[in-house]
Amino acid sequence: MFKLFAGLDVSTQSTKLVIIDLKTEEVVYVNSVNYDADLPHYNTENGAIKGLGEGVSESDPKMWIEAVDRVFESAKNAGIAMAQIGCIAVSGQQHGLVALDAKGNLARPRSKLWNDFSTLEECEILTEKVGGLEQIVQEVGNSQRTGYTAAKIFHMVRHEPETYRRTATLFLVHNYMNYYLTGGVCVMEPGDASGMALWNPANGQWSQKVIAAIAPDLAEKLPEIKPSDRTIGAINPELAAKFGFSEECRIDAGCGDNMYGAVGTGNVEPGIVTVSLGTSGTAYTFMEKPYIDPTGEIAAFCDSTGHYLPLLCVSNLANGYNEFLKIHGLSHAEFDNMLDLTPAANNGRILIPWYVGERTPDVPLAAPLYFGFGLADFTQEKLSRAIIEGHILNLYTGFKRMPVKVREIRLTGGLSRSDTWCQTIADIFEAETVRVAGEGAALGAALHAAWVWKKEREGAVSLADLVKPFVVLDEKHRRQPIQENVKVYRKQKELFDALSKRIRGLDGADPFKLRSEIL
Q1: Cβ neighbours around 232 below 10 Å, total
Q2: What is the tens place of the pLDDT at every residue in 241-275?
Q3: Of 166, 187, 355, 368, which one has the greatest count of Cβ atoms within 10 A?
């Protein structure tokens, strides 16, 4: 009866629906809702409510529900056989906090998002209360960062105690959407939960020390953790009737957008690295055993398959690039052409592109730094080279801590369409790169929904085999490292690392000496 499977990606700026046909092995429907443009009554910019103050990034969770209803209605009106959808999976923006009261209503009308930097003080207090960085990493596998959920909960405890008292359930974004889709199932799963800085991915346990440091009754408000590779219930009958789903349609456990981004790019076996080039940048890979970074810079996450997904995230990526294009009135093609006018490594000119608070390295109050620029050097061509190299070097500097032998880098996100971004990543990371065409996290969610549905009926099913027909590699955008560039970038990587350390007060090599060696 069921041959269709659906994936929802409830991201920071939009909600996307992808529906696949497992029999014909094709994507049969794609649609999305952009919050700013399509739901203007929520008064958002880039998906966050306007005017909340410096460092605050929040959204109304009802906006996500309205967006999901819209994409379902659009699919129904487009003639999709909704009754043939056997399972739905939700990919959610990670770390966002949704608070519900005992009746299932919003205890707090807004959700703090992953890119909210207002909880720096809470991170510092939690780290100190638990015994320092080393102890925090031992407890939860990660450091306390403003992006993670623990500090958001602690912020509510400290600044909105009455709201916290009213709260009965604390959810992540995708858990809240599952709650809506099922009509009240209240669970979490390891993948997204491992990004809360409350739950340890290595031992699969909540940290009692961190919980106690936040609030004595916090454990009562945290849902049960259940496996990622299972369904959690059937669709709410009211939604089934409204949109034409079968009442036997199941809801997948769901996961974070990075975990489903891995599935959607075929990153389900060792040696493949996914690099996502969006407003922020991420790099992550499949591992069979957990990796705990003692510095906390590489996030220790579980994936959506029962394995692990060490992940690096930088807050600044397409934001700086897009603003540069806007300021100078450049198209993407004109920017690419500008790079032909300057050499790789930019003759020792470097931009540290921390335009907003940076997650990796952990510098919430960061500002950008221009190094090696003379007074006549602030030209479009030299700045263009500094922009692209600065963003990629910042990503690489964090990534190099990851214990992985890279076989292939798969690029996703808007900037992956650029030949220059593909080639510069290949040169700096010293690895073959290829763009993945397709729908990313939403496709990964749909594939995961099909996988868990089949597993529950047929037993063991190979996810790699199921995913392969749907993951389309854009061979026109496959790039090998250019060896001449690799040589000069090795020295520039040392220079970037030295500058990054020096401006944070850490020991690092002499940046002036390294620059002279490049010249």
Answers
A1: 22
A2: 999 999 999 999 999 999 999 999 999 999 999 99
A3: 187
